[in-house]
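Good day; I would like, with your permission, to put a structural problem before you. What I wish to show you is a protein chain and, alongside it, a tokenised description of its three-dimensional fold. Thank you for your consideration; the sequence and its tokens are set out here:
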Amino acid sequence: MTEAVPTTRRSRITPEREAELYEAVLDLLREVGYDALTMDAVAARTRSSKATLYRQWGGKAQLVVKALRHGKRIHAEDIDTGSLRGDLHAVVSLEDDCAMERNSALMRGVAMAMHHNDDLREAFRDQMVAPEMGGFRQVVQRAIDRGEVRPDCPAIEFLLHMMVGGFATRALLDDQPPTRAFLTSYIDAVVLPALGVRTD
């Protein structure tokens, strides 16, 4: 009887309301950063009760990661252009340069916060990293099935590492945000050759 109450209450949040709340969380995250973001601030911004937020999401880390995950409307496994090169280029094309710059700054802030927030790191790995790795495995498996990539290629296990690396290190090494043009060139020059895929 006790367990049925939260379930009933959780179902009252409509998808539209949930999306609105996630957007507010991401806006707050950009404004103040993870450490300064509080459930009180989220409740005030979204005109929700703090008790509802805790009942629905359990805590700040889970709420923030859910918001980040919700912001990715299309995932790698949903893309199938008929070639690995087309699939990876399509992943890059999901965001324009402006959105990419904003999200790059956001993810840098979250990555820094993960160094001293175990709950955030655990939630991020469970809800972001694991699904993304699974999605990219599906993309690679389709490439293997098409004969584009050898199943024993050692770079397969590092595909997500390479993709994240190109995105994350653009600002660190070049002091510039990632762009579609940069990431598309990076895929052709680094990722696909590592997987044994011709780009000419």
About this structure: DSSP finds ten helices and no strands in the chain. Residues 1-11 have pLDDT under 50 and may be disordered. The radius of gyration is 19 Å.
